[in-house]
Amino acid sequence: MTITAGIDLGTSSTKAVLVNERREILGKSIRRTGSNLELAAEKTYQQALAQAGITAGDVDYVASTGFGRSTVPFRDIQMTDLTAHGQGARVLFPGTRSVMDIGAQSTRAMRIEPTGQVKLLRMNDKCAAGAGTFLVRVAKYLELTVEDIGALALKSTQPQMISSVCAVLAESEIINHVTAGKQLEDILKGAMLSIASRAQALLKRIGLEQEVTLTGGIGLNAGMLQALEESMKQKINYHAELGAYTGALGAAILAQVRLRRLRGGADVERTSALAAAA
Amino acid sequence: MTMYAAGVDAGSTQTKGIIFDDQMRIVGRGLVDTGANTTKASERAFQAAVRGAGIDPGDVKYTVGTGYGRYKITFGDTQITEITCHAKGAHFIFPKTRTVVDIGGQDTKGIRVGQDGEVADFVMNDKCAAGTGRFLGVAAQVLELSLDDLGPISLKAQRPVDISSTCTVFAETEILSYLAQKKKLEDILMGMHKAIAARTVSLLQRVGMNEELTFTGGVSRNAGMVVALQEAFEMPLNVSEESQYIGAIGAAIFALERAAVAA
Amino acid sequence: MATIDEIVQRCQDQVGDLAFGYVRDWKKRNPQGKVMGYFPVYFPAEIAHAGGILPVAILGGGNRIKLKQADAHMYSFMCSICKSTVELGLSGRLAFLDLFVGSPICDAARHMPNLMQRNVPGLTIDLLYYPGNLRTELAIPYLHREFNRIRQLLESVAGHAIDDEVIRRSVCLYNESRRLVREIYAIRRDSPWLILASECYLLVRAGTFMPVEEHIDLLREVLAQIPDRHARPIDKIRVVYEGAFCEQPPVEFIQALEEVCYVVDDDFLLGSRLIREDVPEDGDPLLNLACSYRDRSHCSSVQHDLRRLKSDDLLAKCRSAEAQAVILSPAKFCEPGLDDQVHHLKRFDREGIPSLQMEFQERMKDFDGVRTQTETFAEAIQFYAN
Amino acid sequence: MSEQTAAQVAVNGAQPSAMRAKAKTLVKNAFGEAWKAKEAGRKICYCFVLGPAELLRCFDMYLIYPEISSAQMAAKKTSLPYIQKAEDYGYSADTCSYVTADVGLYLSGNQHPLGHVPPPDLVINDTLCNTYYKWTEVIHDFWKCPVFSIDHPVRLKRDEKYPYDIEETYQQDKQYVVKQLLELIAECEKLTGIKFDPERFRKNLEFGNQMSALWCEIIDKTRNAPTPFDAVLDGYGYIAGMNTHKGTAEGVAYLEAVKTELDQRIVKGTGAVAEERFRLLWMSAPCYPYFRKIPEMFHQRGATFVYTPQFMQGTRGTYRSKMYDLERPLESYAESMLDYFHGRNPRQAPQWSMGWWGGKDDIRNHLDLMRRFNADGIVFHAIKSCRLNSGGFADLREHLSREGVPILMLESDIADPRFFSEAQVKNRIEAFMEGLEERKYYRARAAV
Ligand SMILES: Nc1ncnc2c1ncn2[C@@H]1O[C@H](COP(=O)(O)OP(=O)(O)O)[C@@H](O)[C@H]1O
Ligand SMILES: Nc1ncnc2c1ncn2[C@@H]1O[C@H](COP(=O)(O)OP(=O)(O)O)[C@@H](O)[C@H]1O
Ligand code: SF4
Ligand code: SF4
Ligand code: SF4
Fold first, then answer.
1. Which residues face A78 on adjacent strands?
2. Which of D434, D443, D448 to probe by mutation at the B interface, max B CB count within 10 Å?
3. How far apart are CA A58 and CA A69, in angstroms?
4. Are B218 and B245 in the same domain?
5. Is the bond leading into C41 cis (omega within 30 degrees of zero)?
6. Three-class HEC string of B42-79
7. Which of D180, D93, D177, D107 has the alpha carbon at shortest distance from D138?
8. Is residue D435 part of a domain?
9. How many helical (H) and strand (E) elements, i.e. helices and strands, does chain D have?
10. Direct distance between the N- and C-terminal alpha carbons of chain A, in angstroms, rounded to an integer
């Protein structure tokens, strides 16, 4: 059995996934990233190994991804989150052609080939208005937890639209909605629709192709998923169980691909430059 | 009998009221938070100004409303844009002003002013909180300081930090990480002020800023910001005691003129 | 003797010097010497050189210049190089120029010299108008006359006649420097680890402000040392870069690309390398230059010549450099570059060669996005290509 | 139907010009007949509005103007899907949206809101704008048709003396253009099988001259107070009607009708707005997606437009100071292309003022325009797409505001509706009009 690991070191959470050559998931884990990146990677990895009932020695190849990918000390290769999410999305939903990755601090849209290869991409890394952090702040402001807001928003009947395109200025609008006595669920739904419209704009720029898969932790928020589907008027794939692990999963599977090539000998020459550098 | 005229500037964050007498003297001021109800806030600001002037609301012959919420000022006689009013007000206080930098609660404006105080051009950023008073508000909250403290503390800075995120939200994260790194409070604060100043300069470049500059709006009350802007512009700035009222002052001057025409 | 690293570092310092210290020094060393500035893409530097005038390419202000005045004079959607060039003028940094020549190669570059003329007192300005229609034979006699007019212009700056014989000698020197640059490029194509694209860029860029004789010495010094460089190949994809024929990306941008791939050919500073073969060294030199511009040149987005497709040229470049992919990266707001990019994109799609589209700006300072995109692109090839 | 009613709705109580509506019919016909022409065996030639229409008509070619085609899409509020198609294809949103709208048209099977446009048998561009070259290359890429460029050199008007003989340069440039025209004639003969008939050319130029004379009279009518037509709202309609029929009897008839209408309006005192309080100059093309909206924001405050340099730039050859000399048709044709761009002109006619090659004359020309049309201010419409027309505005504003000219800078786009922000435009217009009112107030007070 060939076992590979994918470690996705994100700005808000770190994910680890272990797979075998038949793409079966042997173990997975997720935890908050915090300020010590190496530690987060190590701990998350150990947790996943424990779940799989194996040790690091049993793992043949480790691929890291996410914003902290180059700080994972035990990696064999690293790749961008885009490459990993593209592959992960396609494994979870083989029909995927467009991927929407909403992380804590960034929003990315990609068009992918049937193989998972990234064909076109657009990113928005500089503005919080379309990213997960916005919701975290709104939740905090309304004295709710991120885990609660999704279910709550599903109850909304009259979403309170937010006109501001800025996450910070949107907060003032939210304050006004609260003072005006609007329902919490309607306010939340409004905030989610605002993120959804951002995401949609980004997807448009890559020339949307069906099917669309959402990846990243934000999909755990059922309200957000619904907001996206409503504003785009179409079905959007999200894997409830593995969606948050998409990046780690993709990395683990690409690690399998890489290893097969390395072992097959055909590609030995082309060991990734990055692996060589590491 | 003395004639009075009023200007009310309903800003996104704070609402200001000013009463002028017919000698062009400021006789009353009012400053309240705008909150959710602009109409009420402008009434309160007006009332406060009237009380300060020691007159009766009925003595005010003409009222001009301005600011982002000007159309919600129901008791006023007419509305004029805040851009025109800021130019007018700045010209009144500093007649040689050719450029006005107005940093308010949620927007930043650059106004090019003509010889008579008329608007020659303007640029405005009202879409993104970065570079506006709101940025400072958010920072004050994170650092658990009051707005009044920011300026004085930041002036003590020796080695300002570099805030690389332009986005207010991400800058907040950066501030937290600087705190975690035990950076000095004043250095963090000055770093933020500099970040705002840099954004302001790039906005102002579009209207040009070769001649006398006046800094207005609530943020001009922050001495740290004044210093940071002067450094970024590489030139001195006019700042008046009344700087947060400049829009209302401009509106009051228009009100006085119109009252004179009506009379 | 200076090492390659030291030479490259020196070039980088000179390139980053917004005060044009090198040129000012040259003027001190040559009190009688005149300096002319020209805006890209191309200028027949030979004619200026023959008149004893130092030709200096004015290539904007890079990512260090602060635009303090130019923004107020220029419309927001103008490319960075035009804006920062005007800023150089407005801030007095071009005061050392005895002449500035622009070319209406695009709509932005059409305005720029006029803006300079109106706002930079004391700067003498003129235009060199390249024929818009290179397909017709009429282009050659036209350009011949145009170069003659430029000669008259330069003579008025030099204060003396510039005759054919002297120009022929300058042509020989420039031929030599072009040959040396081609040699360095050839080495890079064969062994890209020996000399990097960013290093190449700086070495060529040095030739845009120093006298050709000095540049020849510099190139020879570098060439002599390349074989002894300690560098080993690593496994990176090989790409060709296209889009910087006019505005130049920051060196850090090129370096960001190079972290991820080998840039084995490019169109950086295309103007200095526009003529791809030797210009004939005898006969009417101006006519030779005119013919070379039309018939012995690389394509650029602002030369219009449908006898040959630009994508054919680029494709040939990729094939001869054995590149696996192409990075199409025009400057933001550069209309000619942006339009050509699509043409290339479609062509490369048809040929099954992967391409990455991404804009740059000379004033950019943050390269994270560039790196992420390039990395993802390279990974798509490394993980998926057969 | 809806456009008819829209055209008839009075703005602020004013009576709209009937000839503006007529222009729409003319343009529509110009497109509608294209396929018929193609089927009848005529060659389709894409040429830009300043292209050599009078010459091409000698070969019975059917002319299609890509710019007018894109402008029409925008004016009919249909340009966005076309533009987005082009962007999906790879074109950038930062390039000329006339081009992207046109690309979108090709990608949509040439289905234009005004009818099905046939592909070109020939494309001709000139040097008014460098984007034309790129546009031509794009068209070539799509249709693989022959391409012809008429290159007329651009010469800077130097504030200093020329160290070479500029007159000689001009003569050489002229010969260069004439020779290209001869090449074009040969190419057209080959393509159409029709022999060039100098008589016919002369005849077309004569129509051209008649149109010039009429047009000059028309644009001077805005010097009346109140102006009988609005330079933007009506003026651009007239331009479209005229440009699609350059060098033809229909063109002459149309301009005659325009003139008659305007004369009647003047007699009756009918203005473009009910009460004319301010007269403004409009610089550069309109924002076609909001063609009516922007001028109407001004009209609501009693301001109307009395001139736009596009009256001249957009109508090459159609101006009095440069009538074609029928004795030497080709040469004078070349001159009409060249003169606008040539620094040798001692002082271009002020009407041309666009501000990208004239040095200090650009400033003087704008001031002349202010006087000539008795204007109160200038509106610079900076078009995101168009560097050619917008590139010099900021600088002109710098200089003109020093001269005390009230100036408003508006930003939007010629065909891309996404670059129009109603709130922002409104805000600006409001502040500008407040300034004009204030000026008026002070002037009145000073006069007392
Ligand atoms: N259980 C949850 N329920 C709802 N939303 C969640 C949950 N967990 C995470 N999120 C959202 O997902 C975002 C983080 O997503 P993630 O993909 O882990 O980001 P990154 O990879 O950048 O760290 C958070 O900002 C938050 O909004
Ligand atoms: N004493 C102070 N020190 C620093 N900043 C202040 C002070 N008072 C007000 N401000 C800032 O000024 C802003 C309000 O400015 P103002 O010009 O009134 O804005 P607006 O007109 O947009 O409401 C507040 O958001 C705050 O950030
Ligand atoms: S718009 Fe708001 S969320 Fe976006 S960058 Fe600006 S401050 Fe941040
Ligand atoms: S970079 Fe492009 S747009 Fe700018 S001057 Fe050069 S060719 Fe023109
Ligand atoms: S750039 Fe301007 S002049 Fe040129 S084609 Fe586009 S709109 Fe017309």
1. A64
2. D434
3. 21
4. no
5. yes
6. HHHHHHHHHHHHCCCHHHEEEEEEECCCHHHCCCCCEE
7. D107
8. yes
9. 19, 10
10. 26
Contact A169 B106 (CB under 8 A): yes
Angle at C248 between CA C298 and CA C44, to 5 degrees: 45
Q: Could you give the number of structural domains in chain C?
A: 1
Domain shared by B121 and B77, yes or no: no
Retrieve residue B89's tokens.
């007000």
C112 pocket-lining for ligand 4 (C-beta < 6 Å)? no
Domain count within chain D: 1
The answer to whether D165 faces chain A, any CB pair under 8 Å, is no
Domain that holds residue B141: 96-239
Main-chain phi, psi angles of C258, to 5 degrees = -70, -20
Q: Is residue C382 part of a domain?
A: no
Partner A, chain B 152-171, Cβ-Cβ below 8 Å: 165-170
Tell me if C380 and A117 make a contact (CB, 8 A cut-off).
Answer: yes
Q: How far apart are the CA of C128 and the nearest CA of chain A, in angstroms?
A: 39
* Residues B256, B178 within the same domain: no
Tell me if A133 CB under 6 Å of ligand 3.
no
Residue holding tokens 């503390």? B153
Question: What are the mean pLDDT values of chain D's consecutive 10-residue runs (448 residues total)?
Answer: 38 74 88 89 93 94 94 95 93 95 97 93 94 96 94 89 93 96 97 96 94 91 95 94 91 96 95 94 94 94 93 62 86 87 66 74 91 96 92 91 90 93 89 90 77
- CATH number of domain containing C71: 3.40.50.11890
Same domain (yes/no): B148, B58: no
Return the structure tokens found at B44.
């309160």
Instruction: Write out pLDDT tens, residues D221-259.
Output: 999 999 999 999 999 999 999 989 989 999 999 999 999
ipTM of the complex: 0.88
Provide the number of structural domains found in chain B: 2
In this structure, the answer to whether residues B62 and B49 fall within a common structural domain is: yes
- Chain D hits for B83, CB-CB cut-off 8 Å, are 427, 431
Interface test with B, best of A172, A182, A187 (most B CBs within 10 A): A172
Nearby residues of D277 by Cβ (< 8 Å), 6 or more positions away: D301, D302, D303, D440
Closest Cα in chain D, distance from residue C104 (Å): 8
Nearest-ligand number for the alpha carbon of D286: 5
What does the domain layout of chain A look like in residue ranges? 3-84+244-277, 95-238
Q: Which residues of C touch B202 (CB under 8 A)?
A: 67, 71
d(CA D69, CA D53): 16
The answer to whether the Cβ–Cβ distance between A118 and C380 falls below 8 Å is yes
CATH of domain A3-84+244-277: 3.30.420.40
User: Domain A95-238 sits in which CATH superfamily?
Assistant: ATPase, nucleotide binding domain (3.30.420.40)
What is the Cα–Cα distance from C272 to C331, expressed in whole angstroms? 18
Q: Which ligand approaches the C-alpha of residue A240 most closely?
A: 1
Mutate to test the pocket of ligand 2, among B9, B103, B134, B147 (most ligand atoms within 8 A of CB): B147
